[in-house]
Amino acid sequence: MAHKSHRQKALQAQLEAQPAISLVSSSKRAPLPKPTPSTSKAVSTQDGMAVDGEEGSDEEDDDVLIAPAPAGPSGTSIAEPTSTAGASSSGFAPLPASATSAVLKNEFRRIPIPPHRMSPLKRDWVNLYTPMVEMLGLQVRMNVKRRAVELKTSGHTIDSGAVQKGADFVKAYALGFDVNDALALLRLDDLYLDSFEIKDVKTLHGDHLSRAIGRIAGEGGKVKFSIENASRTRIVLAETNIHILGSVQNIKIARDAIVSLILGSPPGKVYAHLKSVGARMKQRF
């Protein structure tokens, strides 16, 4: 009995020597069962500890103790911080609205105007700047000294491509298109301008060049109007320069017809080809 009491004293000294606060304690003696007078006899030792006389087991049981989470000021446990509602799956906060805006601030564009188009520009100036200001929210002015039209974004500009649309609109008018035809560039997104010269197709001089221009225009502009109606485009003949306004597919149809006329094809053959192309376009749409 004295030997068993000595071992208990040694174990108690080891337990007291361990640190008081620890997250995990791997060698902790399980509490002894309370002896009952009917089932076991309590033996009093010199240090006052009660030992079960029947079992007499001195084996140690290993228990794992997990320390509770630290309490906050109000007595509640402090949970781990969670991600904010606005954070993305990558862990980064979303960009502010000012950074995600695609509108280019203080964008400026100057479009030169040919000398022979300055008088029509002054005459149609009200019809030109009104749609650019109301539809695109641009700042527009005519620089008479530089012979140019200047465009600039403002606080009312919403579309990021407003300056480019306005520049294409003014350029189309400078090339000779009517205001109503050029206005389609502002209303539709799939319209483009295509320009080429007769010498890009075939090198012609003198009367040969004049006859080629006459074949494209026709008597009273009949051939040009027929090509426009069949291909749903607008065409401008400016000496040896040819400008076409329309979608990509329609521009290709009109350009092929004009190239055929430049190379010497008779207008009747071009009409027949345009008629078949127009029938296919109607079936497609």
UniProtKB/TrEMBL annotation:
What Pfam families does UniProt report for this protein, alphabetically?
A: KH_PNO1_2nd
Q: Which GO terms describe its cellular component?
A: nucleolus
Q: Which SUPFAM superfamilies match?
A: Eukaryotic type KH-domain (KH-domain type I) (SSF54791)
Q: Which GO terms describe its molecular function?
A: RNA binding
> Looking at the record, which segments are called Disordered?
1-92
Compositionally biased residues, Acidic residues:
52-64
Q: Where is the PNO1 second type I KH domain?
A: 195-276
Compositionally biased intervals (Low complexity): 82-91
Q: Where in the cell is it found?
A: Nucleus, Nucleolus
Alphabetized InterPro entries for the sequence: KH-I_PNO1_first (IPR055212), KH_dom_type_1_sf (IPR036612), KH_PNO1_2nd (IPR055211)
Keywords assigned by UniProt, alphabetized:
Nucleus, RNA-binding
Task: Report biased composition (Polar residues) as residue ranges.
Answer: 37-47
Task: Please report which protein family the annotation says this sequence is part of.
Answer: Belongs to the PNO1 family.
This protein is called Pre-rRNA-processing protein PNO1
